[in-house]
Structure formats: structure tokens, C-alpha cells
Amino acid sequence: MNEFVSRYDSMIQDPLIREYYGQKDFFNVGYWLSNTLSQQEACENLMDKLLAFLPEKKGTILDVACGMGATTSHLLKYYSATDIEGINISEKQLERCRVNAPGCNFTLMNAVKLEFEDDLFDNIICVEAAFHFDTRERFLQEAWRVLKPGGHLVLSDIIFETTEWLGDWMVPLKNNVKDMEEYKDVYLQARFKQVELVDTTNQCWGEYCRRRMHWLQQTFLAGKLDEPTFREIMVVFDGLLNSSVRHYLLVSAKKPLPDLL
């Protein structure tokens, strides 16, 4: 856990990464439309796509693995600050959260050990993080527990072909599933109903890798990146684009009402 937090904090604060994200505090691949102009805009699109799963944006919402608070800040467009809770395992990232989403409550907490009472939240959102958790299955069981009956879980998640380019420290082997059917079954085993999976691999992961590679090429040509570093990064991104991801998914699931359990 400590290794993950240290390495992830270092990665997310890397100057080159922050420059690519326009010094904004998002850190996900986003959802790219034909007219999307920037990574930040793609990240906003992804949030809107996920929130579109919620029939009514009301009540309380838990932002799991809230990063540096950019996702939580987006929630303020629809929810009052007092109805938003964010959790993360990095205190350093939570410090940024409190700046980006003032008035929301942020707590240092592990997603697989939620320190909340049962049936507390109307909604849970988790953006591009469940594959990190040890394990995804334990997180889903906890999410089901703290959701109110009739509550919704929405998230973006990744099914990896291989973790060769990422490492087991980032994606525990126990989270590997062979296909979307096996992935969906993890939700059903956790007692979720109305599980909907939308495959957005090209619009999210594929387009992100292509755009990021183009940006790196332009950065190199502008003399802001030395050739050995440029070539090393490009090899990694080529591997990520061509071999690592099987599916990038948008997911919606519902905790059923008592008479449907």
C-alpha cells in the first residue's frame, strides 16, 4: 500500500504529466469526441458520460479514489458540497482535493475497507480506479453495503490483456478477468442488479494514447524532451496502445430494493 501511494503520488505530480493535463488536476484518459480539443475537456466528458447513468442527480454521492479533486469539483455542478464525500489513500492528493472542491468532505480511506455505516449513500462514483484496488471484488462488496437500497454505482474501469507495461504494483493480478462476461459476473456475485457495461475502448483508451503520443512528439520537436526519454516513453505508450487493454468500460449497477433482493 505504501509503495503504491508513493509511486502514484510521484507519477501524478510529474511535471511532464501536469503539463499535458494543462496544470489541471484531472488524471484519467477521458472520453474523446470528434470535437474534443484538450485532455481536460475529455476528462469533463467522461464525468458527464458517467453521470448520465444516474436517472436523478440528487441525494448523497461518494467519490471513491477521488484523486486530486477534479472529479469531485465536477460533481459540484449537480450536487451541493454537503452531499459530496470523497475518499483517497493519499493524504497529499487529499490536500489538493480540499482546494479544488471546497466544502466537500474528504477522508483518508481505503476503498476496500469503507468506514461508513450500511445504506448511507444514494450514489457512488469511481473514475478509472477499481482495477487498482486489492481487490475489485472486495470494493464492490463494500460499495453494495454502503449504498442505500435503490442506489447506483457508476464507474469507468479497465480489463487488461496484460499488466506487462504497468506492473503488478498498479494492477493486482487478482483483478484480471478474461472477458466482459466474467467482469459482469463479479458485480452479480456482489448482488448488484441492472448491470450495464458500455465498451468505450476506442473513445477513451485508444484516443487518449493516440493524442498523448502526438503531444509527446510535438514536445520532443519543440526541444522540451531529450531523445532518450522521448524514445523510452514512446515505447511504453506503443505497448499500452497495442497490447495491454482489452476493454475500457463505462459501468452502471444498482443495489436493488429489499423486495427484489
UniProtKB/TrEMBL annotation:
Listed GO MF terms: S-adenosylmethionine-dependent methyltransferase activity
SUPFAM superfamilies: S-adenosyl-L-methionine-dependent methyltransferases
Domain of life assignment: Bacteria
Domain Methyltransferase type: 62-155
Keyword Transferase: yes
Keyword terms, alphabetized: Transferase
Entries under InterPro entries matching the protein: Erg6_SMT_methyltransf, Methyltransf_11, SAM-dependent_MTases_sf
Pfam family of the protein (one): Methyltransf_11
CDD domains per the UniProt record, alphabetical: AdoMet_MTases
Protein name: MstP
The species this protein was found in: Scytonema sp. PCC 10023
